[in-house]
Automatic annotation (TrEMBL):
Protein name: Ig-like domain-containing protein
UniProt source species: Aphis gossypii
Residue ranges constituting the Ig-like domain according to the UniProt record: 82-166
Keywords annotated in UniProt: Disulfide bond
Pfam hit, one: C2-set_2
Amino acid sequence: MFNRRCPGSSMKKQKKIRKFDGEENKNTVIHFKPNFKMGECQSTTKTTSIMMALLFLIIDPCDIGEAVKMIGVKVPAYIFMGDSVQLFCDYDMQMDKLYSVIWYKDNEEFYRYVATSKHLKHSFNMDGITVDHTYSDSTKVTLRHANLLMNGEYKCEVSAEAPFFTTVHAESKMAIISLPKPKDLTKINGGSGVYQTSDTIYLNCTSGESFPAARLRWYINDKMVISNYDRSEKLHNGLYISISKLNLSISPDHFNNGLMKVTCQAIINIGRPKALPPPKEYKREAILLVRGSAVAMCLTFNFKLTLITLTSTLFLLNTS
């Protein structure tokens, strides 16, 4: 509220007197101007407008406790392909009145709620975005049929009515996850046959289709080894496959009872730190057992020892 009285002035009460011009039924009301000791100040509409304009110049609407306040958005860090999701916008209008709530994906508007409009809800065409108006309002928007085009940053912008038209916003990122199908497993190619010491084994590992791309790791008898080559390939459907190659020079230490266990592990990191849902790791493994010739060599060696022992025994018997 603005005080229309000039500081330092003493305004006298207005008096109304009747002035008679000789006829009792004819009279006029005369308003006397108030008397000021220090300057004159008239409470007119023009003066009030000037004061309001000056107030807008010197006061930031955001500093006023009655302005709309943004609390934050609730956007999941990730969802899975084909799912539906609700994005929440949490704000406090305080003493303001709501004008509109607008949702953006990567700074492009796709949903608008206007409180004073005849049609409260309106969505805009955007590739990959399907808004469900039934379950959307001024505090949330519902999206159906999650797909890779929905990856990105989502922003909620809230605007208040006059006089300040305050606008606040908050944003967060959401990722769409596509895991390999049960039949689309990680595979190891190569490693057939029997290997001897100093041989080189050539192996390829290929992950299932996913988004994001999987990371591949090699293990020999559960101990990690470094690959020789790694790459990811984007497919026509937007998913990725990962390919890794391992060229391993075989040593006697690689075999345990004539077998060497080779594992290729595919890892997909889901989510991000300090976000909901919590981060996870998706892991799938392919295992290959490689045969070594050490088993056959060991059997042959034992057989030769037996023959030598028998021969020696027979020789001793004959001489005695």
